[in-house]
Design a protein that fits this description.
Elements lengths: L2 H7 L6 H23 L9 E5 L5 H9 L4 E6 L2 H10 L1 H5 L3 E5 L12 E7 L8 H11 E11 L6 H9 L8 H10 L2 E8 L6 E7 L2
Parallel strand pairs: 1-2, 1-4, 2-3, 4-5
Antiparallel strand pairs: 5-7, 6-7
Helix pairs in contact: 6-8
The chain binds S-adenosylmethionine (SAM).
């Protein structure tokens, strides 16, 4: 595998030297899109929030700022992402407001109905089976809890489709595809948005009560 391909494959699960470089680009590289995504969250006051596929942990930090009373759990299956997310949120970890866990969203070692809010930025492309992973997300959400997905690909833009050919196991989804799986896995009241000039999308759903 040539270096270019190897490097971009680090977006799926950062590992080794190239993974460290990739993770260091994620926080600044995704900030603008993530902030657009955050603007779609309803006014809520979650006690327990989580960011799945947290990468470098910047978005867990944003959740901590947005919801000063919340405890935030950041989860990623990459050891390198977990280390970076811990470093990024050190103060909040030390004060007991943040926990960073290594885990796979397809099989979380977490109790049912733990979270009021779960976010997932730039990560569902890599989840092993959307239906299984959304069902697992629904399991750990409280009834009425929110799940927000934010992707910089709308599933049809040529750049992202090109990356699908380079990155093993990557799948870009359209809003409609995401909504269909959410409906099947216990979510309702789904609202979606497409950025006016970029292929960015957000999908916000509520776990059925
Ligand atoms: C492109 S990065 C995005 C990171 C971060 N959310 C952001 O927006 O900057 C994708 C992250 O999702 C993680 N990831 C992918 N599949 C996962 C899974 N099944 N369980 C947990 N983490 C996963 C990867 O390890 C990687 O850190």
């Amino acid at each position: 595998m040539e270096v270019f391909t190897k490097f971009f494959n680090q977006t799926r699960k950062p590992e080794g030297f190239l993974g460290k470089i990739m993770v260091s680009t994620m926080n600044p590289g995704h900030a603008q899109m993530a902030d657009w995504g955050f603007s779609h969250l309803p006014i809520i006051d979650p006690a327990e929030a989580a960011d799945f596929g947290c990468g470098g942990g910047r978005n867990a930090g944003e959740l901590l700022k947005m919801y000063p009373k919340a405890h935030v759990t950041a989860i990623d299956y990459s050891e390198i992402s977990v280390a970076k997310a811990k470093d990024q949120n050190k103060k909040a970890i030390d004060t007991g407001r943040c926990t960073v866990l290594q885990g796979d969203v397809s099989n979380l070692q977490l109790p049912d109905a733990k979270f009021d809010l779960i976010t997932a930025f730039e990560t569902i492309y890599f989840w092993p089976g959307l239906e299984k992973c959304f069902a697992e997300t629904a399991r750990v959400l409280k009834p009425g809890g929110y799940f927000m997905i934010c992707n910089e690909s709308d599933g049809t833009d040529p750049t992202s489709l090109k990356f699908e050919k380079i990155i093993d196991g990557m799948k870009n989804y359209t809003i409609q595809e995401i909504e269909t799986v959410l409906m099947k896995t216990g979510f309702s009241q789904i609202t979606s948005d497409h950025h006016p000039s970029k292929p960015w999308i957000t999908v916000l759903a509520k776990k059925r009560s």
